[in-house]
Amino acid sequence: MSKEVYRSFEGKLDVDCRDGYIILELKDFWEIRFLTVDGSDDMVRIRKEFLSENDFSNRDKINDLYVSIYFNWGDFGQCWFNGKWYGYDTICKIQRKNKDDKISKEFYYLGRVNATGQVKEFVMPNTDKTAVEIEWVLDTPVREDIYEYIVNG
Q1: What DSSP assignment string belongs to the chain?
Q2: Which of 17, 31, 33, 113 has the most crowded CB, counting CB atoms within 10 A?
Q3: What's the rounded mean pLDDT across residues 93-112?
Q4: Residue 78's pLDDT band (boundaries 50, 70, 90)?
C-alpha cells in the first residue's frame, strides 16, 4: 500500500502548470510519478537511502537519480517499462555488453530523454534470441559537432 507524501504542484495540472510529479511512500522506496498536462507520465522508484524527504522539492536531484536508474549507473531503484518494474540486476542483464564484441559503441550520456512509446521486438541476427528496441527522444537536440564525433569518431 502506498500513500502520497509530496506533490510538486498545487491543484491540477493546467496551462499554467504543465508538468509536475508526486511522490508516494512505499516500504523501501519513494515512487516518483512524473505527470504532464497532455496525459503522458513516467514512473521510477528510488531507494529511500538515496533521497531524503528534504530533497523532495529538488527536481535536479530527482532527475539525476531518474537518469541514473534508467541508464543503470548504480542500484538506486527501479524503472517502470511496458507495464513492469525493472531493477538493477534485470537492467544489467539487458544492457550487458559482450566483451568480445568489437562492433558495438560505448554508451554516451547526451541529456534527459523521454520514451516515445515506440517499442519493437526483433530476433537478433544469427540467433533465435529476441531483443527490444526502444525509441527515445532527447529534450535538447545534440550539437552537430558532438554528433559528428560520436558517429564518425
Answers
A1: --EEEEESSSS---SSS-EEEEEEE-SSEEEEEEEETTS-EEEEEEEGGGS-GGGTT-HHHHHHHHHHHHTTSSSSEEEEETTEEEEHHHHHHHH---TT-SSPPPP---S-EEEEEEEEEEEPTTSS-EEEEEEEEESSPPPHHHHHHHHH-
A2: 31
A3: 58
A4: confident
State pLDDT tens for residues 142-152.
888 877 877 77
Which grid cell sits at 32?
516518483
- Contact between 47 and 77 (Cβ < 8 Å): yes
- Which element (helix H / strand E) includes 138? strand 130-138
Nearest Cα to Cα of residue 113 among 18, 27, 34, 24: 34
The C-alpha atoms of residue 101 and residue 96 are separated, in whole angstroms, by 11
- Nearest-CA neighbor of 78 among 120, 32, 111? 32
Residues 65 and 51 sit within 8 Å (Cβ to Cβ): yes
Beta strands 19-25; 29-36: pairing state: antiparallel
